[in-house]
Amino acid sequence: MKVILQQDVKGQGKKGQLIEASDGYARNFLIPRKLAVPATAENLNTMKQQEKAKKAQEAAEKAEALSEKLKTSVVKLTAKAGTGGRLFGAVTSKEISDGLKAQYGLDVAKSKIVQEEPIKAFGTYELKCKLGYEVTGTIYVVVAEEK
Questions:
Q1: Chain centroid, CA 35 distance in Å
Q2: Is the pTM of this model over 0.85?
Q3: How many angstroms separate the CA atoms of 28 and 22, rounded?
C-alpha cells in the first residue's frame, strides 16, 4: 500500500515522502497513529502543493539574504575614458553582474539588474535589482578610470 508520511518514521522515510508499506503495517500502525495518510489522488496533490509552497518560501528567504548582502557590497569597475570624463561605450549590466561574482561571490543574473539609462560617466551609481517576487535589492557601483 502506498502512503505519504506525515512525520519522520525510523526505518521508513522522512516527512512528506511517498513510500510503499505493507497493508497491515499501514492500516494498523501508520494511519491510526497519524504517521501517514493513504496515497490518494487528493493527498498526492496536497503533497505537491506543499512542496511547491516550501520551495517558494526557500527562494524568498534566499532572495532576502542576497538583498542584505548587496547592501554592504560596492562593485568597483574600471573603464577607458575619453575627454571630459566620458566613457568609451557604457558600463553594462553584464559587467556589473560579473563584477559582483568576481569581487563578492554573489551570483545575480544580468537580466535582474535594472538600469534606467546606461552608465556613460565616472562616478558612483545606485542601481535596483529585482531578486524575486516583490524582493528588490540595491547595488552600489563605483566606476573609476582605467590606468
A1: 32
A2: no
A3: 10
